[in-house]
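ugh ok fine here u go
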Amino acid sequence: MPSLGPVREPQAQSSRRRRLGLVGAVTAAFVAGAVVGPMVAVPGIQAWAQESGRAETYRLLNLFGDVFERVRAEYVEPVTDRDVIENAINGMLQGLDPHSSYMNPRSFRDMQVTTRGEFGGLGIEVTQEGGFVKVISPIDDTPASRAGVKPGDLITHLNGQTTQGLSLQDAVEQMRGERGSSIRLTIRREGEARPVEISLTRDVIRPQVARFRLEGNDVAYIRLSSFNEQTEGALRRAMTTMRGQAGNTLRGLVLDLRNNPGGLLDQAVQVTDDFLDQGEIVSTRARRPEDAQRWNARPGDIAQGLPIVVLVNSGSASASEIVAGALQDHRRAIVMGVKSFGKGSVQTVMPIPGNGAIRLTTARYYTPSGRSIQATGIEPDIEVLAARPDPNGSRERDREADLRRALRNNDGERTTETTPPAPPLPPLNLPAGVLDRVVRAPAEGAPTFDPTKPETDHQLQQALQLLRNIAAAPAPQRRVQR
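structure:
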């Protein structure tokens, strides 16, 4: 799934646009796309320039109309006007950057479900294999888990209709529905000679956005999988639960943001605020200077000053990078792992009544020190690899900078007279010898990483050891606040 954030959620009222990380005649949409920016002209020729600009806009709109009519009349197969227009709008938006796009009504509904963090359904994580829907895992305490759906099950039929040939999105949409409604699954299961028939009643599903546990009864571990409307509340509940379990024995916290693709801007702000007492969290700068915004922390640290390690990797994007960058700038946390994805842009969702919505990139965001991480990412304070380097030099996964039409990082365009470059971060100031004990890569012959076995997670084990070494050092870690 592509990164969602940071996204600004759609307006219900003009006065109610909340901060999140995501128009109607065709002519109006294309005029909006063709008139670009304020016009700068000498007063004597300004009127002429405006007329010339309008003439060019109308000429281009006529070009679109000519192509549209040619496609309708001569394409090898009949096409609907809606499909052609939606594809044209999507092409216009996707030609801007990798994260702007058009969402038809169904895609818009799916986006709202994703950001809301709850939906009516069965409670299974699925993928597609061999043309069928394959169960990755049932979610605990949901209709699917209670009915005995198992990882690896192949769902071959929904209400007697084959899933072969269905897209994964179509299959998921059929399995979702109103709470209390029923659906019948036909499952092919390894070891079973005959198909398994299961009838399920849909319920409200709230995927577990925060997974947590105590490591050795002295370090709290919290993994955030995304930033939806449930994230900050889940984080607080996790911290409260582990404090109750550990009593006064907690030495630190590992906040795992690896492979977290992002989500809602307001949730990234709230999660960061949970660990800061003061100072800037993030700022955004849009096309017009007057649209710049800034968010600041309020008093209250749910970790009560415990040292924190934030784990990131190349799959940590957008809202994850806002959290990691702010905690790093304030030296409230040590960022460990490898460089993050580098998505430093904000998308705003603009609904089109009756016709879905557009997701438009409207701003770049900056960390408290003034860094733009667009196409650069968050560099960890301590680099720790998940696996030993590949001697064959296999290519790393793509990051933002590798995407076609990715926005450039404009930090290099600053001038000392207007916006000075971001100052270097203060040193970590850790107890002597602590950094020397961090092992950058797993030992040769170390077991392959298994997500069900924390002891095989080299980055996590190094984070735990670092926190314990900090706690055991004679001098406490100094916290530097900006």
